[in-house]
Amino acid sequence: MFKLKRIYEEAAADDGLRVLVDRLWPRGMSKEKAEVDLWLKDIAPSPGLRQWFAHDPARWEEFRRRYEGELYLKGDLLAILRQKAKEETVTLLYAARDENYNHVVVLKKFLENANKKPGKPGSR
To answer: What are the Cα distances from residue 123, in Å, to 65, 69, 118, 120?
Structure first.
């Protein structure tokens, strides 16, 4: 099972494995307070894609398509998360303020759709 949570929220017992999936360490967050078990920064969108998107909802659909394309190339990191989720709850941590238009929404859906037949990267 995968859950999403802003890293600035308090850690909870039911978080299970806490995995930071941002490329950059969150501003103002100490490593002790974050209580991160694993930091998979390379599963985050590429720097160019992240900067292009800039959390602009008008770019959401194109961002989602491009990020899914990047995720197809990160099978080893996806496999780590999927395996961990078989063992316990995995909470994907992120720093973005917007809960609806950020990469973890795409990542969670991508991870949960692992058993569906894959199409071309970015296709719907």
So the answer is: 7, 9, 9, 5
Residue ranges of domains in the chain: 2-112
Residue 124 predicted with pLDDT over 90: no
* φ and ψ at residue 72, rounded to 5 degrees: -60, -20
- How many residues are present in the chain? 124
Supply the Cα-derived Rg of the chain in whole angstroms. 14
Tell me, letter by letter, the H, E, C secondary structure of 1-33. Answer: CEEEEECCCCCCHHHCEEEECCCCCCCCCCHHH
Q: How many CB atoms lie within 10 A of CB 35?
A: 14
pLDDT, one tens digit per residue, over 24-71 is 999 999 999 999 999 999 999 999 999 999 999 999 999 999 999 999
